[in-house]
Amino acid sequence: MTKLITKEEAVINEVISINEKSKKKVVSYVNTTLLFTYWNIGKLIVEYQGGKERAKYGDKLIERLSMELTNRYGNNFKIRNIRNMRQFYYCFPIRHSVNAELSWTHYKHIITVKNPLARDYYINEAVSRQLSVRELDRLIKTNTYEREKSNQITYEEDKKNVDVSILKELYILDFLGLKLNYKEKDLEQS
Fold first, then answer.
1. pTM over 0.90
2. Distance set, CA 154 to CA 12, 95, 116, 183 (Å)
3. CB 100 within 8 A of CB 79
4. DSSP state string for 12-75
5. Would you put residue 41 in left (φ > 0), alpha (ψ -120 to 50) or beta?
6. Is the Cβ–Cβ distance between 110 and 123 less than 8 Å?
7. CA-to-CA distance for 100 and 190, rounded, in angstroms?
8. Nearest Cα to 151, choosing from 135, 128, 129, 167?
9. 13-27, 44-58, 73-87, 150-164: which range is least confident on average?
């Protein structure tokens, strides 16, 4: 039996809906602003250092920035986070390459990845699958990009030689202690 909704309940539901949509917009706006603020800070530091990744005077700048900004704005400006801002700019020197669908915390994990193709892979995975930071971190720590790349190469080579049956999904079996490329018998034994 369907319950009829009164006009008053309909208005209440609509107000709730409007409020929820507004909250999402605000969160999105704040996230985007934060990302580009940190990107711009990273850019300024890199420009001050003359584009060098390591400069003796750059470390002094970072220490001074950290002290000044932490006193003024709080713990978001500790030395480590300012270094992350600099690395963020190094990894994404083109502002439009920053995907605002991801949070600063996502990016702090992504900038640890050295390979630009792998970084792009992790960004695409995080956005398309709406991964939490913890899920993204797991993908990075288990070298999912390298595994998928390795599996693709192996599959292409095997396809030329033999009819091979493969798994359609990637399974992370780190707890079994297997090396990156393992045989089916190794999997069965583990």
1. no
2. 57, 36, 22, 12
3. no
4. HHHHHHHHHHHHHHHHHHHHHHHHHHHHHHHHHHHHHTTT-S--HHHHHHHHHHHHHHHHHH-G
5. alpha
6. yes
7. 41
8. 167
9. 150-164
CA 79/CA 105 separation, integer angstroms = 16
Q: What is the mean pLDDT of residues 29-57?
A: 87
Q: How far is CA 25 from CA 37, 86, 102, 105, in A?
A: 18, 28, 14, 19
> Under 8 Å CB-to-CB from 41, ≥6 apart: which residues?
82, 85
Q: Write the pLDDT tens digit of every residue in 94-110.
A: 999 999 999 999 999 99
One-letter identity of residue 87: Q
What single string gives the DSSP state of each residue in 108-147? HHHTT---HHHHHHHHHHHHHTT--HHHHHHHHHTTHHHH
Residues with Cβ within 8 Å of 70's Cβ and at least 6 positions away in sequence, in order, are 77, 78
Residue 73 tokens, joined: 């704005």
Task: State both tokens at 164.
Answer: 């091979």
Contact 123/111 with Cβ under 8 angstroms?
Answer: no
End-to-end Cα distance, the chain: 54
